[in-house]
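User: Hey, my collaborator sent me this sequence without any context and asked if I could get a structure. I don't really work with proteins. Can you help?
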Amino acid sequence: MLDERKKKVLQAVIDDYVTMAEPVGSRTVARTHDLGVSAATIRNEMADLEMLGYLEHIHTSSGRIPSSKGYRFYVDDLLTPRKLSEEEKTLIDRWYKARVKRIDEVFQETAKIISHVTKNLSFVLAPQLSQAAFRCLQFLPLDEHRAIAVVMTDAGFIENRIVKIPDGAAFEDFQRMAKVINECLAGKNLAAIQPEHMKRIRDEIGDEKLYESATGIIRQSLDSEKRERLYLGGTTEALSQPEFHSVERMKEILLMLEEKQLLKDILHAHLGEGLSVTIGRENKYTGIQDCSIITATYHLDGELLGTIAVLGPTRMEYGKAMTLLGYMNDNLASVIRQFRW
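Assistant: No problem. I've predicted the 3D structure and written it out in structure-token form, which is a compact way to encode the shape of the chain:
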């Protein structure tokens, strides 16, 4: 157990580190917080906190940063619960009213709201509450041998796939294939695509390798349509965090975001737990052991629907993120009801 002075010093260090994103020294704490003790006393307390595992000393800097253990104590024992302000509630209400016209958009906009407020990555794991119709297929050139296939539906869902350009084919062949598919399937419910539709596409394309590529893309979209969906928000805002400025670290995060099943597994691990905070090395996936995840599960008419989450560096504003997810968790069901029927 920490005595009151150590608690105050730990809270001061964490508050300052969250704000400045730089190691915190005793003089900074003494200058920015009225703890009623000298900088020398604060320095001794910080040394004790480091010895106890709540703070870490990095490089040659005289300052210290919180450890996962320090953040855990901070979240469990030092954070004071707060409510969302009326201004913040109004922002959320207006956001939904201005941007959501159908139920499928509720979840994507929820992810955007969360990332906008927290400045971190956000996820919403949601069930399929309606059937989407095919809108179009587009291809974007990636390199000489690969292209990115983008499948869009009328519900705004977008599926991205990297596809190999078969030997002897060119990107222009993929563009021609997309035109054929769009003419054959535009407006059709994904779940209602029949073999005769695919036969027409095969005949129109006239190239078996291209046809196999096309069926693979559509099959993956159909499979995805049957499963729950993962919505992502805030990639640009999250990568602007100092912790992700390293090119290598940025690559790691982007590669992780491509692993949709991994992200779903992470969220499923917290399904039904209510509001949960997993900090740093508590995360089992090694790629995010310098990050924290805050999750909340939401319900509709007593049925567990899915999970909303924030993922960011351990140096995040836990109080703000936890308050926001708690509010969204309590109110998401009422938003869904407005668009369900």
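In plain terms: The two ends are 53 Å apart (CA to CA). You can pass these tokens on to your collaborator as they are.
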